[in-house]
Write a structure and sequence with these properties.
L-amino acid transmembrane transporter activity; mainly alpha; disordered N terminus; AminoAcid_Transporter; 75% helix; 2 strands; transmembrane helix; AA/rel_permease1; globular; membrane; 345 residues; single chain
Length: 345
């Protein structure tokens, strides 16, 4: 499959356009993409089970752990990459405002989604190693295609379609969920007012979505898929660490506040230590790649200082920012939501 072009950027543009306009159709499409992902994994698992009695499969199962690298730093990088593979569950919390009964539905969705994902992903990885040797699996650019060619001539074409739908669905979830974080931060006054604006007709956060799109486009054009995975994994880990620290702070500063879903404090402390160690070791193992990603993330600090924390701005600067915000508002037909207006009365 490597000889064919990969027009990733047009697909990203198309998903951004859909999420900015027809959100209801996008959510329905996401269910279809999820079914395609589950179908692909079930086909791989069932196909591998048909070979379980063969000598080739038995030999592969005996030796699939041979020559494993047990270096602590490499193990941390493996876990680090796992954040990308098993990620996506946090989108449920990002879209909590669109859930009818979040107190009951969100915990149920999180637990069921993670259990199903772990079950299917582990079995899928085992299925690959039942059919392929470790060297074949590691050297393959598209492991599902290599797996399919080993079993049936037509299986790679079916898997190619399903894997493509899986990838589109994964990107669609990110495009749909991540801009909501920027939008929510702006509504609470933690980001510039521009990011809190919605399109007057479609009621979607266009400025937040466009900003996330530009960042994703830069990462796509500046490196390989492996580099993109490392960037996303580091971002997820840092976001998780900050979230855990904020949750610990709230538990100690507001112990009497009602919490429908309460995580035990020892679990939070252990998770903070593990996440911090994972980030530190991963950056130590790949200082240039992940260090540059840290610089990109740190670029948000001056934005916050200049536009939010700095209260005594010069009048000319405030006028310039307001003029630019008003220009973008008129250009894209934006308006401030009632949430922002109520929070800043």
């Amino acid at each position: 499959m490597s000889q064919f072009p990969r027009p990733t950027e047009p697909k990203l543009v198309g998903l951004v356009a859909l999420n900015c306009t027809y959100t209801s159709y996008v959510t329905k499409l996401q269910g279809f993409f999820t079914m395609a992902k589950a179908s692909a994994m079930l086909i791989i698992i069932i196909s591998a089970l048909t070979t379980v009695t063969s000598d080739h499969t038995q030999e592969n199962l005996k030796h699939f752990m041979d020559n494993s690298n047990t270096d602590f730093g490499r193990l941390c990088l493996s876990v680090f990459a796992g954040y990308f593979s098993y990620g996506g569950w946090q989108i449920i919390t990002v879209l909590m405002e669109e859930v009818q009964n979040p107190v009951k539905d969100v915990p149920r969705a999180l637990v069921s989604a993670m259990l199903i994902a772990i079950f299917l992903f582990v079995l899928t990885n085992m299925a690959f190693y039942m059919v392929l040797t470790p060297n074949e699996a590691l050297q393959s650019d598209a492991i599902a295609m290599t797996f399919g060619r080993r079993l049936h001539a037509s299986l790679p074409y079916l898997l190619a379609i399903l894997v493509t739908l899986c990838c589109i669905g994964s990107v669609n979830v990110v495009v749909m969920g991540q801009p909501r974080i920027l939008y929510a931060a702006a509504c609470l006054g933690h980001m510039p007012r521009l990011f809190a604006m919605l399109h007057y007709k479609f009621l979607t956060p266009w400025p937040a979505t466009f900003t996330m799109f530009l960042g994703a486009l830069y990462m796509l054009l500046s490196g390989t898929v492996a580099l993109l995975i490392n960037y996303i994994s580091l971002y997820v880990c840092i976001m998780l660490l900050v979230l855990l620290l904020a949750l610990l702070h709230l538990r100690y500063s507001h112990p009497d506040r009602e919490q429908p879903f309460k995580v035990p404090i020892p679990v939070l402390i252990v998770q903070v230590i593990l996440t911090f160690a994972l980030i530190s070791v991963s950056v130590y193992e790949k200082p240039h790649e992940l260090g540059f990603c840290l610089l990109i993330l740190a670029s948000a600090i001056p934005v916050y200082i200049v536009f939010i924390y700095w209260s005594n701005k010069p009048r000319a600067f405030v006028h310039l920012v307001d003029s630019f915000t008003d220009f973008i508002r008129k250009l894209f037909l934006l308006e401030l939501p009632t949430t922002y207006i109520n929070n800043h009365r």
